[in-house]
Design a protein that fits this description.
Length: 410
């Protein structure tokens, strides 16, 4: 998207506001499918947790995507968006057996990541096909909070517990139709991914009636100029060759599945904020904006770096600023960053704001969550309204305390 288009949206709708470029989402989807064009059966399940706005879900469904979900609410959103139940996979962690059973009733593919639930579900519902999430004990990802395949992770069933899995499957006679892994996000080294894939192939040999192997995702996208990213094309070439080879030895054409979230929507997103104050201290120039970690927590939670553009003064002289929010805690978006000269009232655009930004937003400090806009066919479509004060009160219940007697004894 052009800076002028973003600026027009901020001026028309106010700030803060999220903007998503549908055409970038489409190009990322096609890039991934093109990398695996030589796989006979490829399935892309978009990870709804990255960005779950119903209009974005519908757009991805129309591209041919399935849906990866982690809660029954995401499953329900997917169904409302028009995804067929058989094109949704449910990969929760630590949820109750009751929630898994409720999702199973909807006809969604179940993916189980612990021995206890596997045995309970298999004992009660042996005829419902189940995928198993394996922990390959491979450390991958750009931050400990998003590295989920290592030995201390809460996710998945350890590869060292394969005998336990096989015992449960044998005892319950349950139907295992898929094997799954997800090592983490921001994977740079495709050799690490390929190594983990070999573990998954070896595990798959234990199950004779598989329909698919799910390799998760975690592909890294660039966050700044010159930043490195996962080489999807090289990974496609190498994993395709190995997958097709495995299918031959397995004696059956399986489906190769992925669950990209950030890869599809991160670069499509822009977060637009207004500069309230430019504050000079003895050591720093702060650009204080009309947002905070209540709207964009990733820099504080993950140490992620979002490129920041001054779209009100794109040709101005570059100066150094620390961009901070209005929350009553430290909420620093950027430290000592080179940005075109900033004046009060300017609109700043945070790049890579499509994934895990709005979905992690909150009403901290009783602030409203922003509007969302989908840029499609050269037009801005409002896909979520700015919240209002009524939204803050919507589910609160007022109790009349005026006639209560004091319980404090004198």
């Amino acid at each position: 998207m052009k800076k002028e288009q973003l600026l027009n949206i901020a001026q028309e709708l106010g700030s803060p506001v999220y903007v998503y470029d549908a055409h970038k989402i489409e190009s990322q989807y096609k890039r991934l499918t093109s990398a695996f064009t030589n796989v006979k059966n490829l399935k892309i399940n978009y990870a709804a947790k990255a960005l779950s706005n119903i209009s974005v879900l519908k757009f991805l469904k129309n591209l041919g995507s399935g849906l990866d979900t982690v809660s029954i609410q995401e499953v329900q959103l997917g169904l409302v968006a028009g995804f067929k139940a058989q094109n949704i996979i449910f990969t929760p962690n630590g949820v109750s057996l009751e929630e898994i059973e409720e999702v199973a009733k909807l006809g969604v593919q179940i993916n189980i990541d612990n021995l206890s639930i596997l045995e309970q579900f298999g004992s009660k519902h042996p005829d419902i096909p189940v995928c198993i999430r394996i922990n390959p004990h491979v450390m991958a990802g750009g931050n400990t909070n998003i590295s989920v395949g290592h030995i201390d992770s809460k996710f998945g069933i350890s590869i060292h517990q394969i005998p336990h899995i096989l015992r449960i499957v044998e005892n319950t006679k349950m139907h295992i139709n898929g094997i799954h892994m997800h090592t983490g996000s921001d994977i740079l080294d495709i050799d690490v991914f390929l190594y983990a894939s070999e573990i998954l192939f070896e595990t798959a040999k234990n199950f004779k009636n598989l329909e698919f192997i799910d390799f998760g995702s975690g592909f890294k996208v660039p966050y700044k100029k010159g930043d490195i990213e996962t080489n999807i094309e090289e990974l496609g070439k190498k994993l395709t060759s190995r997958f097709n080879e495995f299918c031959k030895s397995y004696g059956k054409e399986l489906t190769l599945a992925f669950e990209p979230g950030k890869f599809l929507v991160s670069e499509a997103g822009f977060f637009l904020v207004k500069v309230n104050v430019v504050k000079q201290t003895t050591s720093t120039v702060f650009a204080q904006v009309d947002s905070g970690f209540n709207h964009l927590i990733r820099p504080m939670l993950y140490g992620s770096q979002h490129e920041i553009m001054n779209i009100s003064n794109p040709d101005g002289r570059e100066r150094f600023y620390s961009v901070v929010g209005y929350i009553c805690e430290t909420d620093t978006f950027a430290n000592n960053r080179r940005i075109n000269e900033i004046n009060e009232g300017d609109i700043l655009a945070f790049k890579n704001a499509g994934a895990y930004c709005f979905t992690m937003a909150s009403n901290y400090n009783s602030r409203f969550r922003p509007a969302e806009v989908l840029w499609y066919n050269n037009k801005a479509h409002l896909i979520r309204k700015h919240e209002t004060f009524d939204d803050l009160l919507a589910n609160q219940v007022t109790v009349d305390l005026s006639k209560k007697k004091s319980v404090v004894k004198k």
